[in-house]
Amino acid sequence: MIENLYAIVAMTEKTNAIGRAGDMLYHLKDDLKYFKSTTENNTIVCGRKTYFSFPKRPLPNRKNIVLTRGNTAFDGAYTMHSREEIIEYAKNNPDEKIFICGGDNIYKQFMDDVSKLYVTSIIEEKKVDADSFFPEILEEKWKLTSESEYICPDNAPKYKFLIYDRI
Ligand SMILES: NC(=O)c1ccc[n+]([C@@H]2O[C@H](COP(=O)([O-])OP(=O)(O)OC[C@H]3O[C@@H](n4cnc5c(N)ncnc54)[C@H](OP(=O)(O)O)[C@@H]3O)[C@@H](O)[C@H]2O)c1
């Protein structure tokens, strides 16, 4: 586990669904604000597909690191080519808070490395059709250390913010 490496995700409460056809399942106003305020002035790491799903790239006021096995350079963002390169970067920069922000593929690779999970937990009013999922949060590995009140938007599902620490 690496102290300064975290994951941040918005997912459905029961099925851990995070995306469909390359896009997010929900665009929740206060969740976007939460993501911004949590990650701003810090570092984010995302897979190439997630990076290209951002409407504005790179995300402002953050160091953006894109993971790709290809040779593409991303204007205004850093490029890294393996999980190991990120791990080494995190270890060499212990004062930097580094947020793994997806997608599916990337969360799975870093689940055993991150020390905190910032989870936006969304109530599924009806079963969602998804093709991307966050890994299971195992009780024996993670302790819930923070839980907000529910946010109840008028025309969107209700959701709350959870933080888990690695046991
Ligand atoms: N709800 C949320 O919080 C949330 C957050 C983020 C994403 N998402 C959703 O997740 C879905 C995308 O997930 P995804 O798994 O398809 O794509 P992804 O993780 O965003 O990107 C996958 C790409 O990352 C690169 N990559 C992965 N592992 C690597 C490694 N070890 N070393 C170097 N490069 C590596 C590869 O890029 P190359 O092909 O260029 O080599 C791979 O094709 C979308 O639906 C998105 O909306 C949801």
Identify the notable features of this structure and list them briefly.
167 residues; alpha/beta; Dihydrofolate Reductase, subunit A; 8-stranded mixed beta sheet; 3-stranded antiparallel beta sheet; 4 helices; globular; binds NADP nicotinamide-adenine-dinucleotide phosphate; dihydrofolate reductase activity
Please sum up the structure shown.
By secondary structure, the chain is α/β, with parallel strands linked by helices. It contains four helices and eleven strands. It has an eight-stranded mixed sheet, sandwiched between helices.
Structure description:
The chain has 167 residues and is α/β, with parallel strands linked by helices. A hairpin with a 2-residue loop joins β2 (17-20) and β3 (23-24). The chain starts with a strand and ends with a strand. It has a single domain (2-166), classed as 3-Layer(aba) Sandwich (Dihydrofolate Reductase, subunit A). It is built from four helices and eleven strands. The strands form two sheets. The chain has an eight-stranded mixed β-sheet with strand order 6-5-4-7-1-8-11-10, with helices on both faces. NADP nicotinamide-adenine-dinucleotide phosphate binds at residues 9-11, 18-19, 22-24, 46-50, 53, 67-70, 81-83, 101-106, 109, 132.
